[in-house]
Amino acid sequence: MTRTRSVLGVYPGSFDPVTLGHEDIARRTLRVADRVLVAVAHQATQAKSPAFEMEERLEMLREVFQDETRIECVSFSGLLVDFCREVRADFVIRGLRAVSDFEYEFQMAQMNRQMDPGMEFLFLTPDAHLSFLSASLVREVARLGGDVSPFVSKPVLRRMEARFGHTEGAASRGEGA
Ligand code: PNS
């Protein structure tokens, strides 16, 4: 079969900040897509108040994926279904870490499907050693002065240090609470 155009996967999320788990999912997506759009949802569509502004989240993502030309990082506002139609996405990618993620992801996929019956969702699991990671826990550890270096890549670590103070090696030096 001859393909007429490249396969595009949209990977939406808050990415506040991008973790090694997100990174793993985006790179895995390239096994089934020619291009990946990592799409940061506009703050107005999120319930929680973010640790990083949209521009900072985008900058971190772009630094993290600067080695990979097939991954592009953008932001979007409004509904995911509208954004996906606009960019002519073939499917949406979401990461599934554990059964606990399933209910929320299933609900979101079905809501989106209701709004756009043509929308496909693909769920990928991260590498096992990343399956416990969440951006909200990473933020909490950083806020409390813990070491987040095992959970985020270097560009993100630098930003977290600038925002929350030192977040690398504090535990090994016996510092902190
Ligand atoms: O990383 P998150 O916070 O779990 O990502 C949630 C996200 C951004 C994928 C979701 O909130 C979303 O799609 N927001 C865009 C607005 C929208 O379409 N909302 C209706 C979802 S059914």
Poorly predicted residue ranges: 170-177
Under CATH, the topology can be stated as Rossmann fold
- Percentage of residues in strands: 15-25%
Structural class by sheet pairing and helices: alpha/beta
| Count of runs of 4 or more consecutive helical residues | 6
Explain what the structure shows.
With 177 residues, the chain is α/β, with parallel strands linked by helices. 37% of the residues lie in helices and 16% in strands. It has helices at 20-29, 54-64, 80-87, 99-115, 135-143, 154-164, and strands spanning 8-13, 35-41, 71-76, 91-95, 121-124. β4 (91-95), α4 and β5 form a beta-alpha-beta unit. α2 packs antiparallel against α6 (154-164). The site of 4'-phosphopantetheine (PNS) has 10 residues, from β1 and α4.
Architecture blueprint of SSEs:
Layout: E1 8-13, H1 20-29, E2 35-41, H2 54-64, E3 71-76, H3 80-87, E4 91-95, H4 99-115, E5 121-124, H5 135-143, H6 154-164
Helix pairs in contact: 2-6
The chain binds 4'-phosphopantetheine.
4'-phosphopantetheine binds at residues 12-14, 41, 45, 79-80, 108, 111-112.
